[in-house]
Design brief:
This protein has about 150 residues and is α+β, with helices and mostly antiparallel strands. It is built from four helices and nine strands. The chain is elongated, with a radius of gyration of 16 Å.
């Protein structure tokens, strides 16, 4: 399951999507909205995406997981729009026969997503809002726009 959603992410659905009789391990990363950033109180976050490219990049991450690790299944779901404190903005789940592959591939997936997928985060504070640097993802969109 690779998707971008606008509603709260169903954690149980993600878990079910990677269940396998061959799996001895399921690793799930859940990125949630915290109530502070850079010493300021965060009220909520908003995410925007270049959805077509983001989905392609997320699929490429899933493909890379299958190439590099012996996994049973992987799911990557990212939420866009408003995400309140305590809510999940991204969930990555990986199942494999052994925990090492599940842990390693799940970590690779979130680290790569943060670097390459064109999804941007805006933090809302009591005194204003600020976009969080999108790093390589912004560069990827610029390259696509130039083609």
């Amino acid at each position: 399951m690779i998707s971008i959603v606008t509603e709260p992410i169903d954690i149980q659905e993600i878990f079910r999507s990677v269940e396998s009789k061959e799996a001895g391990a399921v690793d799930i990363f859940i990125g949630t909205t915290r109530n502070n950033s850079s010493g300021k109180k965060v009220l909520f976050l908003e995410y925007e995406a270049f959805a077509e490219m983001a989905l392609k990049e997320m699929e490429a991450i899933g493909d890379e997981l299958r190439i590099r690790w012996n996994i049973c299944a992987a799911s990557i779901v990212h939420r866009i729009g408003r995400v309140d404190i305590g809510e999940a903005s991204v969930i990555i789940a990986v199942s494999s026969a052994h925990r090492k592959e599940a842990f390693e591939s799940c970590r690779f997936a979130i680290d790569t997503l943060k670097k390459t997928v064109p999804i941007w985060k805006k933090e809302y504070f009591e005194d204003g809002a600020a976009w969080v640097d999108g790093g390589a993802a912004i560069g990827n969109v610029q390259l696509l726009m130039e083609k």
